[in-house]
């Protein structure tokens, strides 16, 4: 019975598109079965990739960070990246409160940073293609974002700006400098909900630091990358006054202690 079932399975495999492709490779190019299977798997990865993990995402081909400047893209290292074109309620809030231009600029921030963190760089032409606008519009948007202190990683200017910091760290830096939520919203094109979420995350980091946790533990508990955690730590140390924590740190921690109560206080922060 098992033998019969296996035979039915084997015969069914012969009727798939994948097997037709493999048979064509073996017949027309005289490849071995193993070589044909390898070509099939490579073609599937290059042509289809993996399905995006959530709604609003798409896959895009761009230049690698390692690609050299001055050479045509066809001669460069290319890679596939996952981009969040639609971020749900956050994007809708920005569109409702600040308009289409602010939303487009927010997407430029998000798409360029996502690509950079995955090891790639978008061009202004890439951004125009994804967002369905001209390169001239993208160029003006990038200039406006940079004037407000945002770091934009694109293939055309990344060699001049260095690694920079993430938009989340930039938002926290503005918050710690005393800016209001409205001012931060205007400069970063983010919704108030997103800004509050980032500030809350930084507050949780303060609580964990006060408990003596290390980078790896903090990253895991916050659900963010070690790179972002280290950016937050640099920002944390930048605003410290010797061994004393500034009042804004203490105020933020006190606000969050209700949600993240401590069983005992070690007194270090005061």
Keywords:
270 residues, single chain, 14 helices, 6% strand, 60% helix
Describe how the helices and strands are arranged.
Elements: H1 2-13, H2 17-28, H3 33-47, E1 57-64, E2 78-84, H4 89-98, H5 100-117, E3 120-121, H6 124-131, H7 135-147, H8 158-161, H9 167-176, H10 181-188, H11 192-210, H12 215-222, H13 226-239, H14 247-257
Antiparallel strand pairs: 1-2, 1-3
Helix pairs in contact: 2-3, 4-5, 5-7, 6-7, 9-11, 9-13, 11-14, 12-13
Low-confidence stretches: none
> What is the beta-strand fraction?
5-15%
CATH class of the largest domain: Mainly Alpha
Helical stretch tally? 14
- Proportion of helical residues: 55-70%
Class based on secondary structure composition and strand pairing: mainly alpha
N- to C-terminal separation? 76 Å
What is the C-alpha radius of gyration, as a whole number of Å? 25 Å
Which strand order does the major sheet show? 2-1-3
Q: Can you tell me the overall shape?
A: globular
What name does CATH use for the topology of the largest domain? Answer: Cyclin A, domain 1
Strand count: 3
Q: How would you characterize this protein structure?
A:
This protein has two domains: 57-162, Cyclin A, domain 1, CATH 1.10.472; 165-270, no CATH class. It is 60% helix and 6% strand. The protein contains 14 helices and three strands. The chain has helices spanning 2-13, 17-28, 33-47, 89-98, 100-117, 124-131, 135-147, 158-161, 167-176, 181-188, 192-210, 215-222, 226-239, 247-257, and strands at residues 57-64, 78-84, 120-121. A three-stranded antiparallel β-sheet has the order 2-1-3, covered by helices on one side. Helix 4 packs antiparallel against helix 5 (100-117), helix 9 (167-176) crosses helix 11 (192-210) and helix 9 (167-176) packs parallel to helix 13 (226-239). The mean pLDDT is 84.
């Amino acid at each position: 019975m098992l033998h019969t079932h296996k035979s039915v399975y084997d015969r069914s495999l012969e009727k798939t598109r994948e097997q037709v492709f493999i048979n064509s490779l073996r017949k027309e190019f005289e490849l071995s079965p193993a070589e044909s299977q390898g070509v099939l798997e490579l073609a599937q990865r290059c042509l289809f990739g993996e399905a995006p993990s959530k709604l609003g995402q798409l896959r895009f081909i761009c230049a690698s960070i390692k690609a050299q400047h001055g050479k045509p893209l066809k001669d460069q290292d290319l890679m596939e990246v996952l981009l969040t074109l639609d971020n749900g309620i956050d994007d809708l809030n920005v569109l409702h409160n600040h308009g289409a231009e602010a939303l487009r600029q927010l997407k430029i921030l998000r798409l360029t940073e996502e690509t950079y963190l995955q090891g790639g760089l978008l061009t202004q032409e890439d951004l125009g293609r994804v967002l369905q606008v001209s390169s001239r519009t993208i160029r003006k948007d990038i200039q406006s974002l940079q004037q407000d202190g945002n770091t934009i990683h694109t293939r055309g200017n990344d060699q001049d700006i260095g690694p920079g910091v993430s938009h989340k760290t930039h938002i926290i830096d503005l918050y710690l400098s005393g800016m209001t939520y409205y001012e931060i919203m205007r400069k970063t094109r983010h919704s108030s909900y997103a800004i509050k979420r980032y500030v809350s995350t930084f507050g949780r980091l303060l609580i964990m630091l006060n408990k003596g946790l290390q980078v790896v533990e903090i990253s895991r508990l916050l659900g963010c990358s070690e790179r972002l955690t280290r950016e937050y730590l640099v920002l944390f140390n930048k605003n410290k006054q010797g061994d004393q924590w500034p009042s804004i740190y203490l105020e933020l921690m006190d606000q969050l202690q209700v949600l993240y109560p401590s069983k005992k206080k070690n007194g270090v922060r005061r």
